[in-house]
Automatic annotation (TrEMBL):
<feature type="transmembrane region" description="Helical">
    <location>
        <begin position="43"/>
        <end position="63"/>
    </location>
</feature>
<keyword id="KW-0812">Transmembrane</keyword>
<keyword id="KW-0472">Membrane</keyword>
<dbReference type="Pfam" id="PF01957">
    <property type="entry name" value="NfeD"/>
</dbReference>
<dbReference type="InterPro" id="IPR012340">
    <property type="entry name" value="NA-bd_OB-fold"/>
</dbReference>
<keyword id="KW-1133">Transmembrane helix</keyword>
<feature type="domain" description="NfeD-like C-terminal">
    <location>
        <begin position="82"/>
        <end position="140"/>
    </location>
</feature>
<dbReference type="InterPro" id="IPR052165">
    <property type="entry name" value="Membrane_assoc_protease"/>
</dbReference>
<dbReference type="GO" id="GO:0005886">
    <property type="term" value="C:plasma membrane"/>
</dbReference>
<protein>
    <recommendedName>
        <fullName>NfeD-like C-terminal domain-containing protein</fullName>
    </recommendedName>
</protein>
<dbReference type="InterPro" id="IPR002810">
    <property type="entry name" value="NfeD-like_C"/>
</dbReference>
Length: 141
């Protein structure tokens, strides 16, 4: 009977974590889940409470800081032109050995093909291989 009560408590705490999102209730829910498994061994109530307290404290002290670092730190925003490498573009002016233009990420860029002997007609889709100064180096998809 005690295992079911601890399991229900774990579910309630996990549901609270969905509302709060700071990983504290998740650690408490995990402690309740550990205690639910331990209660299947027929331990007295005081031992279950000790197991719940110790497992929850250990999870809060050791796992929660790792989760905070992993999931709550903002990712770095790369606004350099090198961030455009690998993105798709549409040719708006034929790319010839002397140059051309592509629409890349909402703006028009001067472009040249990876293979300078190749001509890519307007309307074709290309992928950016490199950014060379103000020129996008592209290849045909």
């Amino acid at each position: 009977m005690g295992a079911i009560i601890w399991l229900i408590g774990a579910l309630v705490l996990a549901g609270l974590e969905l509302a709060v999102g700071e990983f504290t209730f998740l650690m408490l829910a995990s402690g309740a889940l550990v205690t639910s498994g331990a209660s299947l061994l027929g331990l007295p109530v005081w031992a279950e409470l000790v197991i719940f307290g110790l497992s929850s404290a250990a999870l809060i002290l050791f796992l929660r800081p790792f989760l905070h670092r992993r999931y709550l730190t903002p990712s770095k925003l790369d606004t350099s032109p090198k961030a455009l490498v690998g993105k798709g573009a549409v040719v708006v002016e034929d790319i010839t050995p002397t140059g051309g233009q592509v629409r890349l990420d909402g703006s028009i860029w001067s472009a040249r093909a990876v293979d300078p002997a190749r001509t890519i007609p307007a309307g074709d889709h290309v992928t950016v291989a490199d950014i060379d100064g103000i020129i996008a180096v592209v290849w045909k998809d």
